[in-house]
């Protein structure tokens, strides 16, 4: 559940600009400000079910953009590479093993090829 | 001119999936296969001017996606960070100056914050 919300937040950050104003209004409250369905329902004077349906529909729109473009996945892969490099650097700072620096180089060369 | 084509190639790679089949057909020849306008014109049995106009219109569509989403710019920034790290690693391999490893760490921490 938490991971699902994290993914929705990320997809909204990536593709939110492609949404309609109405979708954006609700998704901004839900994703960026972490409002509950009930709070969004009160604020917009619409039923909780309508909020739920809008979020579900918008999630499909965002997933569709990701299916088409796959840019969030590409971006996540880059982030993972940075995290791996950081881990190697931290290990190097403790052990001073030169082979770790070679491992860093290999990751980078793969990323920029 | 060369940089303009490089940018178009990159934007096509990023947002090409959002184009129509007809736009894709021409852009694939122009961007991925490096066909000239004349060659695309012959192959598709349309005028050189029509090919030119399609490419110009499609370029605007792609630039519009980039204006909205800015994902190519974000991606380029990541690539620049990888290139900078590689440069520091290469410098380290020559000088073995530990401060270069600290510089690598700073770049990564900025990227994954």
UniProtKB/TrEMBL annotation, chains A, B:
Pfam families: UPF0122. Signal peptide: none annotated. One of its GO terms (molecular function) is DNA binding. The keyword Cell cycle does not apply. SUPFAM superfamilies: Sigma3 and sigma4 domains of RNA polymerase sigma factors (SSF88659). Belongs to the UPF0122 family. Might take part in the signal recognition particle (SRP) pathway. This is inferred from the conservation of its genetic proximity to ftsY/ffh. May be a regulatory protein. This is UPF0122 protein QE109_00775. It comes from Fusibacter bizertensis.
């Amino acid at each position: 559940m938490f991971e699902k919300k994290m993914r929705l937040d990320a997809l909204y950050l990536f593709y939110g600009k492609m949404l309609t104003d109405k979708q954006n209004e609700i998704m901004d409250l839900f994703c960026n400000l972490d409002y509950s369905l009930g709070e969004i329902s009160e604020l917009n004077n619409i039923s909780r079910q309508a909020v739920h349906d809008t979020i579900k529909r918008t999630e499909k729109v965002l997933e569709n953009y990701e299916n088409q473009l796959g840019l969030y996945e590409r971006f996540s892969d880059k982030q993972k590479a940075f995290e791996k490099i950081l881990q190697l650097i931290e290990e190097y700072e403790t052990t001073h093993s030169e082979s770790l620096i070679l491992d860093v180089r290999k990751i980078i060369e793969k990323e920029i090829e």
